[in-house]
Each structure stands twice: as structure tokens, then as C-alpha cells.
Amino acid sequence: MVRTAQPLLAVCVAVALAALPVRGESAWRTDAAAIAKLQGDMAYVLDAASESDLIPVTIVMRDQVPRHAIEQAVRTRDPKDRRATVVRLLRSLADRSQADVLAVLRAEQRTGAVGRRIQAMWIANMVAAEVTPGLAYHIAARGDVARLVHNSKLEILDDPAVEQGSIPNGGIECGVELMQTPRVWNELGITGKGALVAVADTGTCHTHPDLIDHIWHNPGEIPDNGIDDDNNGYIDDIIGWNFEEKNNDPRDTTGHGTHTAGTVVGDGTEGTVTGMAPGAALMVLRVGSQAGFRPSDVWEAMQYAVTMNAHVINMSFGWMHSMNPPRATWREVSENTMAAGSGLVVGAGGGGNCCRPYDAVTTPGDVPDVITVGASDCNDIIASFSSRGPVTWQDVPPYNDWPWPPGKLKPTVCAPGVNTISCRAIPCNGYTIMSGTSMATPHVTGAVALMIEADPNISPERMKDILKRTSVDLGDPGPDNAHGAGRVDAYEAVLAAGGINCDLIKKFKVKCKGGKLKVVIKSGLEKGVRLTVVDNGEQTVIRTNRKGKANLKKKNQTGIHDVSIKECPECSAQVDCG
Fold it and tell me: 316 and 128 in contact (C-beta within 8 Å)?
């Protein structure tokens, strides 16, 4: 992942460093250009540190891939081409522009001014490292650096997420039921098969009986051979990666990540069906623990998910704006991740009605285009702790958009997240109860996984649009800053995701003779397209053949029949069978 600088470049950098003031001299702390690039609490942290302290920083480079180039790549119709194009743009810029800074860091690493690990990333053009205050000022003053942000571990203040003990086994978790998920399984035959879901959290107890059969296994890696077989920069990343501790063991030591994972894929082996999409595959990305989450670890995990072709990433965490999260960098990383084709589903946070008029929704749930999830209960009542919108980016350069009033409406949607039953990590069996937007978020991620089976080529933009269009409106009529567009309805979302182009239906004919009802459909649709024929409320699924035709025949019919295609309501007819 980290490329080795050429010897000539290293010599040149060493000469350049020799001409600089000795680290710690006042010149390093008074450079106006450097000070202007210290974001959030960075200046305070550096001033409070001793000269030998190693401070975790993220160096955000000046050059980022222009939005117009990213947007052009997003218009690529084939999702594989889209991902490849975006990743190529991001990687090539990082390779070109990071070389000098990396050479400086490696040279200073030998003097003890840089910590052991240098984290070069391309998901946005940036490098994370631990550096002395003097070197931090020097790097900030460089012309090719846009800003320095503090990369410390921060406690996630997402929501209550209070564990309330083990519970009796049995049945289907109420949020899964409320969102009409059993209808998706039973009527549509969809369970999320083919969807790859990355859960970035505190890890997962992947041996839990309800999860073990649904954990993703890296097809390019040979287990335990100590070799990076797929050349992705990670050795023996069989089920994911532990980005917090830099190893291939992403087990959960807190319980939060196992609970969220169970809401995505838990299959009920031990008695309670907790998962929305038990047919999906779960990629385990540990990005933190009770000690907190380091932003660069999350960003690297998002980069990994893009590299390994995850369809959607669940992120049940966030930081209040008062904690000075690097909002601009979060937005850059999030937008690039979505542009590459990986959807982002993020908790709105547990701020409730705090921080009026616009600071309650946490980062990164405040990023405009992510799917931000508020929490309701299984009676469709919004949770008191669920963060209310709106959000604004009016004071966050270089964006300075979504001015308040009115700001950007958030959350996007809501889902059940109160007293949610899901998988327990300690011990790694059975179930436990937690509450929070952390619990609502994987309900939505699971719904997206179901949508992915219905449309394997679905884009992040379409994921969000469908969820909004098909949600159950709650509260005052229309979207609002408590419920978003409403509570997600998995059944209607999946129907919309697998929807057809009704303009391709050329003929819809219904006739009845001698008690025999016949429905004839001729279309330009491809083979195997699912059509639901509704006859006086009774639904029958038929599929098109290779010529785009589909027929339904029913014997012994009497009376008036109102017949339509559910996916194309304009195709309807009424016949009298006598």
C-alpha cells in the first residue's frame, strides 16, 4: 500500500530538510501559512504538546480529483466500469501527488519525528501519521498540503445503545416484521442473495450461530498462509480486517458491532430471526472499540470496502459537531465512496432535539448524499433520542453550501431502533437488546441488501431515491426533519428496485371464455422478468420468456374480475366470466 520512494528523491528530500529550522524552533509555530491550515482543534493540540510528542494527524493534500471528473465517471452505466473508473482516478492522483510528502515522512521516521505507521490513502488524497509538533507545522506550510486535521481516537456519541440483558428466544424481531420483510422472503423469494454488505463497527463475533453461515470469505485469499494472495495490501484478510489493531482478527470485544451485524443477516438459528437479509454476505470491518474510533481507520476501511466491491457499507456511529470532527474530509471520503458504487447507510445520532437550529445530526450522517437513518419504535413513534435535522454546510470550506435556513433535510428515512433484539457477542450466542440509531441503521442496510438482489446493478443514488419514495410517511404529511421521508418499507422498496420499464409492455389482454380466464402479456422485456398479476386482489407471479411474453391461465372462474399488473398499474382490465 505504501510505495517506496526512489533513492534520488530521498536524497533530495534529505537535503531540503537539512536547510529547515531545527524542529521545535519558534519559526515553525509562527508561520501564518501553516497556522491557517490547522483545522478544528489541531492548533490547540500542537501548542499544548511537548516537542517530542507524536501527534496523530491526517495530511489532506491540496489536489483532489475534481468533482466534475467524478460526476462524469458516475454517469458510466455499467457499475463495474463505474467503480473501476472512479478508483483509477483516485489512485492515480494519490500516486502522483503524495510522493514528496511520503518521502519527507519516511526520512523523518528515521529520526524519531514520525511514528511507526504511515497511512497513505486514495479514497481521498491524504496521508495519516503521528508526527512531532514541529514537523506538523512544517508539513502544514507546504504548498501541496491543503490542511492538517487531528486524527485522535474519539468516543462515538451516537445514541444510548444501552444493553438490557439477554432475552427469551423466538419469533421475528419486531422491526424486521414491521418493515414487511417476511413478505419479501415469502412472496418474492428474496433474502439478499448476492449482496455484499460491509459493516464498519467494533467488529463482529463471526462465530455466532446466527451469523457464521453469512460471513463473507475473501475469494482471493488463502487462509493462514501469511501471504497477501490477492495483492490488496492485507495479509490473510479472510473475512475482513481489524483496522484499529492492524490485523486480520476483527472480532468484537464490545457487542455493538455484533448487534448491528445481526440486524443485517441474523438468520434465527438460535430461535429469533433478527436479520433483514439472511441471504447476504457480511464483510467484517473493525474500526474501533470502547477506546474510540480513529477517523483514518474508518476511512481506510471504507477504501477497503470499495476495493473489495462491497455494495453497501453500514456505519452505526457518529460525532457531534462540538467534538470538531473533520467534516470536509468526511464529506470528500463519503462522496468518493458512493461515486465508486458503494452505498453508505449512516446513523443520524442520539442528539434528539439538541443543538438547535441545525447541529444535532452527527458526522458523517450530516454528509448530504449519504442515507441518514433516524430511529423510531415498532409502533412508528419517533425515538426521543433520534437526532433531528436539518444540517448546514454553510461554514465548512470548501463546500459552503446548504445554507440555513432551511438547510438540508435530515434524516433521509427512519427505521425501528428502540429495544431492538439482535445477536449477543459476550458470550457469543443468544440475543440482547439495544436502542439507538445504531440499531435503526442496519435495518435500512438490510433493506438495501434485499434491493440489491432485486437489482444487482442498483446505484447508491437509486438506493436512496427508492427508499425515500417507498417509505411510510410518519408525523406531519411529507418529509420532515424528524422522520425524513418516513419509515422504510422493505417490501415496497424491493418491488421498486426490481421494477420494470412499463413502456416496454406492448400488449396486455385479459379475456374469459367458458370459465377460463387468460391473461396475455407481450413486451420488449428480457427473459425472466418478474410480473405480478393481481386478479381481484389475488397475486400470482409470472415471468417473461425469451420473447418477452408471459401468460396466466385460470380455470373455473366466475363473476367480474379486475385484473392488473402490480408493477405497472396502468395495465389493467375488467372482464366478466359469467
Answer: no
240-242 and 145-150 strand pairing: unpaired
Query: Which triple of cell numbers denotes residue 102?
Result: 511520503
108 neighbors 114 (Cβ within 8 angstroms)? yes
Written as nine digits, the cell of 133 is 509538533
**What does the radius of gyration of the chain's CA atoms come to, in whole angstroms?**
26
Domain extents in the chain: 7-150, 174-497, 502-576
Answer yes or no: is pLDDT of 16 > 60. no
Amino acid at 329: T
> Which one, of 157, 266, 293, lies nearest residue 204 by Cα?
266
* 174-497 CATH pick, 3.40.50.200, 1.20.120.1630, 3.40.605.10, 3.40.190.10: 3.40.50.200
* pTM confidence score: 0.85
Which residue in 340, 336, 335 sits closest to 80, CA to CA?
340
Q: What's the chain's average pLDDT? A: 92
- Whether 201 and 317 have beta carbons less than 8 Å apart is answered as yes
Query: Which stretches does DSSP call E strand in 459-514?
Result: 505-513
Rounded to whole angstroms, the Cα distance separating 392 from 380 reads 27
Q: What are phi and psi of 525, to 5 degrees?
A: -75, 155
Judge whether residue 18 has pLDDT over 90: no
Give the span between the Cα atoms of 218 and 199, in whole angstroms: 15
